[in-house]
Amino acid sequence: MVGWTPSLEPPKFLKDNKNVTSWKTPESVNARPCQHCGSVKHWDYECKHSWKGERQARASFITLSDPEIEALNAYDDLYYDLESEGESAKDQQDFCEPLQSSDQNL
Q1: String of b and e for 34-48 (b: at least 16 CB within 10 Å)?
Q2: Helix/strand/coil (H/E/C) assignment for every residue in the chain
Q3: What is the per-residue pLDDT across 15-54, written as a single tens digit (0 to 9) for each?
Q4: How confident is the model at residue 66 (pLDDT cuts 50, 70, 90)?
Q5: Which of 31, 82, 83, 88 has the fewest CB atoms within 10 Å, measured from its CB?
């Protein structure tokens, strides 16, 4: 699985399968489950348990081994590549179809 390492800690929260990403899920692209709740239906960054958006400063010193860094980078790359694919598909869809036909007789 993309982003998985043997040293990955188990999720700290209950699985939240109600939160489903609007594009490709980790399950559909063989990526590891959400590190916060263990759901395969959304990405870490979309989890309600992620600390994103909180106004608290947190600082921790950690050391990561090379396999852990590579796994984290692979997971992030997959997430951002899929996100940019989804956005470009939406943008193209807006410009491919005209709003109204100019061939209509009024």
Answers
A1: bbbbbbbbbbbebbe
A2: CECCCCCCCCCCCCCCCCCCCCCCCCHHHCECCCCCCCCCCCCHHHCCCCCCCCCCCCCCCCCCCHHHHHHHHHHHHHHHHHHHHHHHHHHHHHHHCCCCCCCCCC
A3: 988 989 888 999 999 999 998 899 999 998 889 888 754 5
A4: confident
A5: 88
The single residue listed with the structure tokens 């399968």 is 17
Asked if 4 contacts 62 with a C-beta cutoff of 8 angstroms, the reply is no
- Cβ-based burial of 75 (10 A; exposed 0-12, middle 13-18, buried ≥19): buried
User: Which tops the pLDDT comparison, 60 or 75?
Assistant: 75
Provide the mean pLDDT of the chain.
Answer: 77
